Amino acid sequence: MSSATGADKIKVFLSNDALKLRKDHRIVGYLIGPFPDKLYQVNESGLPLQLMKEEVRLLLNFQIINLIRLDVDINQNVVEDYNRHLNTSRSDYTKLATERRLAQIASHVDSSKGLKRRRQDSSKLDSFEGLEGELNQLAESERIKEQKVSIETMNNDLLPVQLFTECPWPRKEVVINDEWSFPESERDILLYSIYQDLWKRGHYITCGLKFGCDYTVYEFDPLVAHAKYMVKCQSQMSDLTGLQILILSRISTQVKKELLIASLDNNQEAIGRESMSIRGEKNEHNYKPIYFITMAGGNSGGVASGGGPYNYSYIFKYIIIGDMGVGKSCLLHQFTEKKFMADCPHTIGVEFGTRIIEVCGQKIKLQIWDTAGQERFRAVTRSYYRGAAGALMVYDITRRSTYNHLSSWLTDARNLTNPNTVIYLIGNKSDMETQRDVTYDEAKAFAEENGLMFIEASAKTGENVEEAFLETATKIYQNIQDGSLDLNAAESGVQHKPNSGAPGGQQHGLGGDNVGNKNECAC
Known about the structure:
Elements: E1 2-6, E2 9-12, H1 15-25, E3 30-33, E4 46-51, H2 53-61, E5 66-72, H3 76-123, H4 127-152, E6 171-175, H5 186-200, E7 204-207, E8 215-218, E9 229-233, H6 242-254, E10 258-264, E11 270-276, E12 290-295, E13 314-322, H7 328-337, E14 350-359, E15 362-371, H8 378-381, E16 390-396, H9 400-404, H10 406-416, E17 422-428, H11 440-449, E18 453-456, H12 465-481, E19 494-496
Parallel strand pairs: 1-5, 9-10, 10-12, 13-15, 13-16, 16-17, 17-18
Antiparallel strand pairs: 1-2, 2-4, 3-4, 5-6, 7-8, 8-9, 11-12, 13-19, 14-15
Helix pairs in contact: 3-4
GO cellular component, one term: phagocytic vesicle
Domain tRNA intron endonuclease catalytic: 191-269
Membrane topology: Lipid-anchor
């Protein structure tokens, strides 16, 4: 299944594809095209189907669609063909519009004639009045001619043109899945993580803009059922004021939906929820319940409190790469949750986790993208390399094949990330020493030869897991301090939160320099 691209607007033009997305994958999108015979009304829409950014990312991660760019050689013949198509389409519509308008006028004239005839029969009008009727009929005929001329001379800019559902000219189709960069910002990551969680639970999800929220959630197809939830995505619950909750509650009550306020912590699964209800004085107004969901299991990263709109000074983007089955997801889970997942399923596309750490007195939020190791997902996961400040490259010390493939992973990392990306080599499963197939010395030699940091770790016991993530962050922070990492560059993989106060009253500019005493950091 393919989708056409236009800037960041992804559209599906074929009805069979749109139906398949809805029936098989619960992807709703929204129709933006007019019906051919109802061009200027806004109550009904038709193809093409435009997809939300969250829907596109989900479909790409599960390899359901391909994004296609059509490279057409725009030569003189193509231009002439297109102009002929415009003229033919406009001419056809003019004829159709003229016929319909004249038929409408004729029906009005016929009804007017019938009314006048009945009046003549009832009042026995004389010949003078009959002559007046003929004159009126002649005037109607002239008005019909005027209408016809006005339609035929309509401005071309006001005439619709039939769109192509498939490019009619010779073209080259280029798959550009890895160019789809959403989500990039912290807000986008929050939205997509919550969207993905709700979708995995079997819901239909649409844009909630008309209700003043982020999503509307349906338990069944929106064609057969109303939405059950209004979803408001909130990065920090403390930022949501009582007035905002009250406004959202009143809206949800008015439209007969339950309000769901969701936030993201460290993982992707909603582990529980709290609910509350609001009642007016003397129980005159019964509001719908409000549900608060936290996506993940607590502040395992030691989240700081107080002091401004953010409780961290920087955001570092990490990616974890390596062959399937080397334990990338287990390392992420051990780092964010301090737990080992014995039955960890293979990652499909990408997964996501966060944790707030402290480096040199600075609170730093790590955004960690866990990529799938299967070859069939490489085109999808490559888009996540861009803008990564740190890359953890993992192999399994008990499987030499995963070590032999490191050169390929390193090539991707070097080609797709910025030159200052910190790459850390991790030999996982160090607890399985008796089954070792790759020696420590040869892996260390590989790391030194390629300028990588290196450690062996165990996602099962937790040995050296913390060290790998923290040492990567420390190196990134050092690069900020010595100026080798430009925070103003979009590909740096680092976001600075200028409003958050550093310990001791220090503040950091965009260049990473301390206004306070720089020597106090012992990194």
